[in-house]
């Protein structure tokens, strides 16, 4: 279902992937610095989640400024929260690369505002860009260290923008419940020599879904 979401004096293009049964939880997904919401990994993940009963809303925001992307992401969260079509108990924020930085920033802001309504259930960072290529001295970890809700990282062990040891170091300092799933030998674009894109995406999609299920079940116990 295609929708346009008002954002200032512009609109954000977005697409709902809707499960057959009425969903209780949703995931908001956005893309990295290049591309848009039709980036194949996002389309694959959205279809997988919807087929497993989770509503997925993916959107395009072309700005390359993280603050701008974060504002757009907040707008989408509000839109879904106030939606009459889908009454959700909670959402997970997710993004790829730069999109995951924007998602992390939104989660941090909301946890600082302490909106105790628990609408945001967790954060999923696909290929989180912890540093620029070859610039490992400057880490983009400030948002991560302040987040309180559960966080899942899915990263390639050969990601040139996310050194394995550096991410493990940041994660060990995080106060939030967290998990890293390493895609063996994958680069920042999740390409792995000798594996098809579909094969890699199956691994990522299954990990993301089982993590969502763990976190939503935990809460029902």
UniProtKB/TrEMBL annotation:
Domain KANL3/Tex30 alpha/beta hydrolase-like stretches: 27-212
A Pfam family that the UniProt record links to this protein: Abhydrolase_11
- Protein name listed in UniProt: TEX30 protein
Native species: Oriolus oriolus (Eurasian golden oriole)
């Amino acid at each position: 279902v295609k929708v346009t979401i008002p954002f200032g004096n512009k609109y954000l293009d977005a697409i709902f992937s809707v499960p057959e049964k009425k969903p209780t939880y949703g995931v908001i997904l956005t893309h990295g610095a290049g591309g848009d919401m039709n980036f194949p990994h996002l389309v694959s993940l959205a279809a997988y989640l919807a087929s497993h009963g989770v509503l997925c809303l993916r959107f395009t925001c072309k700005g390359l400024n993280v603050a701008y992307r974060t504002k757009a992401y907040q707008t989408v969260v509000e839109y879904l929260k106030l939606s009459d079509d889908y009454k959700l108990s909670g959402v997970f924020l997710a993004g790829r690369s730069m999109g995951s930085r924007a998602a992390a920033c939104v989660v941090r802001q909301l946890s600082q505002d302490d909106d105790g309504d628990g609408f945001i259930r967790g954060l999923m960072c696909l290929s989180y860009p912890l540093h620029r290529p070859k610039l490992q001295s400057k880490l983009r970890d400030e948002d991560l260290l302040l987040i309180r809700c559960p966080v899942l990282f899915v990263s390639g062990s050969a990601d040139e923008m996310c050194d394995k040891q550096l991410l493990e170091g940041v994660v060990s300092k995080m106060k939030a419940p967290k998990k890293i799933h390493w895609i063996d030998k994958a680069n920042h674009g999740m390409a792995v020599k000798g594996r098809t894109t579909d094969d890699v995406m199956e691994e990522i999609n299954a990990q993301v879904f089982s993590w969502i299920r763990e976190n939503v079940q935990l809460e029902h116990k």
